[in-house]
Every structure is written in C-alpha cells, then in structure tokens.
Design goal:
The protein is α/β, with parallel strands linked by helices. Helices cover about 40% and strands about 15% of the residues.
Length: about 375
C-alpha cells in the first residue's frame, strides 16, 4: 500500500504524542513493505532539516501558518494541493480538525481512502479560542459523514461517536517501548540523580495541567526536584506565568528527545499526569512501560490507559494532587508496587507492533474491501 500521513508536525518526532505514534507506526509499516509518506511542517523541521527520508519514511516538507489556531489546518490545506500530483491508497489524518477539509480531500485525493484518528473532544481544550472551539465542534459531524474510517484512541471518544452520532469506531490506542535504556549519562547534564526527581512530560499549555502541578508541588516540602519536559511555541503569556515560579526546585528543561528523554523518563521517582483534557498519552504509557509510579487526574479518558495501576486525584484540584504526591514520597514500597503493575499492563495491552497491526488491517480493509 501507498500510505500518506497528515495532521502532525513531522518525523522524526520532535513535539508530542501524535508525532511519536506516527514515527513508531510508520517505521513498522515501512518494514512490512508499505510505502509511507509523512507531510511535515517546515517550521518544525529542525532535527534533520531538508532530508527527504527518515527510517524509510518519505518526508514532504511544506510551509504552514505558524500560529496556534492555523498551523494544523493551513498545513493540511497546502498538503492536499500538493497531493494532486501524488497517488496514495489511503491517507491517515491525525486530529479531528482535519475533518473540515475532507470535502477538499474528496476532490484532490484521486480516490484514496481516508482514515481519521481522533483523540478526544478537542473543543474542550482550554488553549483554543471560541472560533476554534466552534470549528472543532463542527468537525465531528463532518467526520461522521465523510471519513471512510475513524479510529478512536480511547473509550470516551468511542462512546461519543456511538451515542451522539450513531457511528461505531474501532478503538486503537498507542504503544510503548518495553526496553529500558541501559545508559545513565543524562543526570550529570541536568544536575539530577536517578530515582530522585518527580517528572511531567507535556506541552506547556493549559489543558496539560502544568500550572496545576507547579501549584501542587510548591506546597510540598521535599528535596526531590520537579522536572518538566516540554515547551510550546504558542501561548507565551501562559508559559511565562507558569515558569515565573520562585521555587528553585522546579526545573523546566524545554524539549528533550532521544536517549536523554528515555533516560529521564525511565529513572524518575514519580510520573505526574495532571491533564485537564486528555486523549491517550504516549508519554504516560512510556512511563508505565518503564515501571514508574504514576499519579494522574481522574479523567475518564485516562482509565483505559492507567486503570488501577496508579494513583488518581480530582481533576483540577491542586490540593488533592499535593496530598497524593506526599503519600507516595512516604511509601517507596508502594511506589515500586504501582510501577510493576503499570509495566505489566503495558506488556498486556500496549504494544507498538499490535497497534501497527490494527492500522495496517484497517487500511487494507479500506483499500481492498476485505
């Protein structure tokens, strides 16, 4: 099959969960003999700028309007016009907002099938303005009418499509790498000690709850620093406010990728997932795969990932999060127990090879009507 992938910032992954998923799935699809093309955004093309391939994946690098509300849609719009000169069997669209451009795809896609991947009701995310929220609301019925297939990456989204739009969607989540990094070169670089820090990996935007974690941590007396991996090119006022904390124990590392990222994730004492709006998070699953103890908000969307293998706190409640962190600081044996349970859950349910099987099977059914 010839597969195109739209709606992410590009490969190699240098931003977030969707990019990680595309890199993992796309690389495996190439190994299985498929031709995979990923449309990449020029302003994020910083890891291997200009290179036409990565891990066998063909990269088409195109511009976009680099703003929070227009980056995704403008890049998909431009990509669809570039696609006029291409021939694909199936196109994977990441992000519900792309559904608004499915009418254009029907005109430019030369009969290719569409597979839309949806991670949640995006209009609930605090980062979006009112016009963007309206557009995202309209994208759901558009997806139901025009997408050849829709993947829900968590049960809550699947239920939304079923109950509100009477459309059944296959449930396909993300995977995780079970092989823990053997090196430990990262600690001297960042002034940390193995198993002696608390970690969150997230873009610094309101829906990720970074501000909530900072508030909760500031209430706690501990020598373990709080480390936050992630950044954002947008919402600079929000980021400035979050990073203005006077607590010197909090370390904002910005974007961290590759082996440094894996070492930091694999060796934290606690992994905090305080999201206010969520889909399936590859960083959460990876922390679980590395047998880390997770404290997460009690969003229903997180249940399918974490289940009972970590602690939960009331979404949006910084005081409750502080209490949960203090509980685990005093119970290292419980931390180890939760970590082992979380790793076993990823072994049982979250495997990139199995996720790739699902994407491959759904694509083949669309193309060959099997």
């Amino acid at each position: 099959m010839k597969i195109a992938i739209l709606g992410i910032r590009g490969v190699p992954a240098n931003f977030g969960g969707s990019e990680t998923a595309v890199e993992e799935i796309g690389t495996r699809l190439v190994r299985r003999g498929h031709e995979v093309t990923v449309y990449c955004r020029k302003h994020k093309d910083t890891v291997i700028p200009g290179d036409k391939t990565y891990n066998g994946i063909r990269r088409i690098i195109l511009p976009s309007i680099n703003s929070l509300n227009l980056d995704l849609m403008s890049h998909t719009f431009i990509s669809l016009f570039q696609m006029v000169g291409e021939r694909f069997d199936v196109v994977h669209f990441h992000g519900i907002g792309n559904a608004l451009l499915l009418p254009l795809f029907k005109l430019t896609g030369h009969g290719a099938k569409s597979l839309l991947i949806v991670d949640g009701p995006d209009w609930k995310r605090p980062k979006w303005g009112k016009m963007a929220q309206l557009a995202l609301r309209l994208s759901f019925p558009m997806a139901v009418r025009l997408a050849d297939e829709i993947i829900s990456d968590n049960i809550e989204v699947q239920n939304l499509f079923r109950e509100k739009y009477q459309r059944e969607t296959p449930l396909v989540g993300y995977g995780a790498d079970l092989s823990k990094p053997s090196s430990n070169n990262v600690f001297k670089k960042y002034g940390l000690e193995s198993n002696r820090y608390i970690l969150q990996v997230a873009a610094i935007v309101p829906d990720k709850g970074v501000h909530l974690l900072v508030e909760a941590y500031e209430k706690i007396r501990t020598e373990l620093p709080l480390v936050i991996i992630g950044d954002t090119p947008y919402m600079t006022d929000f980021k400035t406010k979050v990073q203005s904390t006077k607590d010197s124990r909090i370390k904002f590392l910005g974007y961290v990728y590759g082996n440094d990222y894996r070492e930091l994730l694999a060796n934290c004492y606690l992994y905090i997932h305080p999201l206010i709006v969520d889909g399936t998070s590859p960083a959460l699953l990876q922390a679980m795969a590395y047998d880390r103890c997770v404290i997460a908000s009690d969003l229903p969307e997180i249940n399918g990932s974490l289940a009972n293998t970590g602690l939960r706190f009331e979404t949006g409640n910084a005081n409750d999060l502080s209490i949960r962190i203090l509980e685990m600081l005093d119970q290292p044996e419980k931390v180890r127990e939760f970590g082992l349970m979380a790793r076993q859950r990823t072994i049982d349910f979250f495997n990139w090879d199995l996720v790739t099987d699902e994407y491959e099977d759904l694509s083949l059914r669309l193309v060959y009507h099997i």
